[in-house]
Specification:
- With 251 residues, this protein is α/β, with parallel strands linked by helices.
- It is 43% helix and 12% strand.
- The protein has ten helices and six strands, in the order αβαβαβαβαββααααα.
- Strand 4, helix 5 and strand 5 form a beta-alpha-beta unit.
Length: 251
């Protein structure tokens, strides 16, 4: 009986702590960070949240939904992308599902990439979504100048292999990857039954990353053309770049 009482008390304590943390989402601490009045919202950023698992109940999916919720609390528009895409094949680029996905990529000002770590690296499902992002459209790279936040979840001990790899990919795609990041070890233990993150330092870090992404995106999104204007691209025509980057011939 004593053991049962102790377990019950621990569960109630976790529930109370999570409820307290959840209440903070309605206070000034998670108001739009650039608004002088928390009731005002001048945010116009659009964020695409992506996760690397096909299981509907996966922890990366749960984290994606939480990130979407936090971003919305910060005042921006956020949607979660469907990761169930055909295996990358340029011959399938006209597939309606791929076109819908690419429309979301074009729509977004910033991205959140969330991947489980499998064998020390990014999941195939996450990598497949990145592979489908076009490297170039004429002389324009669709992801160039957009912001990126990276997160990973682990079933065991904490690691940073996957977030480091996603940073490398973001840099290759000429994205502005924000300094902060999240890595959650034993992530299956960090969610309540209703799918919300328990109150912890890991949850706080996820919220920090979401807030930082909002700030960077709001500051940079209207300066993208200026920041990404490159001499090499001004002297190379769209036709020349398209020919040089012809993936159908290369893959």
């Amino acid at each position: 009986m004593k053991r049962f009482a102790s377990i019950t008390a621990a569960v109630l304590a976790i529930s109370a702590a999570t409820a307290t943390a959840e209440a903070a989402l309605t206070t000034h601490s998670l108001a739009p960070p650039l608004a002088t009045d928390p009731k005002e919202n001048s945010m116009t950023s659009k964020i695409l949240v992506q996760y690397g698992s096909l299981r509907s109940n996966s922890v990366s999916h749960k984290l994606a939904l939480e990130v979407q919720r936090f971003l919305t609390k910060f005042g921006v528009e956020a949607i979660v992308a469907d990761p169930n895409l055909p295996l990358y094949d340029e011959e399938l680029r006209d597939d309606p599902k791929i076109q819908e996905y690419l429309d979301h990529v074009d729509w977004a000002d910033g991205f959140v990439w969330i991947s489980p770590e499998l064998h020390g690296t990014i999941s195939a499902v996450m990598k497949n979504q990145v592979d489908w992002m076009q490297l170039s459209v004429g002389a324009v790279r669709p992801t160039q100048g957009k912001t990126l936040a990276v997160m990973q979840v682990e079933g065991g001990s904490q690691s940073f292999n996957t977030v480091n790899l996603m940073r490398q990919m973001g840099r290759w795609m000429r994205m502005f990857t924000i300094p902060n990041q999240s890595s959650i070890p034993k992530a299956y233990q960090e969610f309540t039954e209703d799918g919300q993150l328990k109150d912890s330092s890991f949850r706080n870090r996820v919220i920090d990353v979401a807030e930082e992404l909002v700030k960077f995106t709001e500051i940079l999104k209207d300066k993208v053309d200026f920041l990404t204007d490159r001499y090499s691209e001004r002297v190379e025509s769209g036709e020349e770049l398209a020919e040089r980057m012809n993936l159908k011939e290369a893959i």
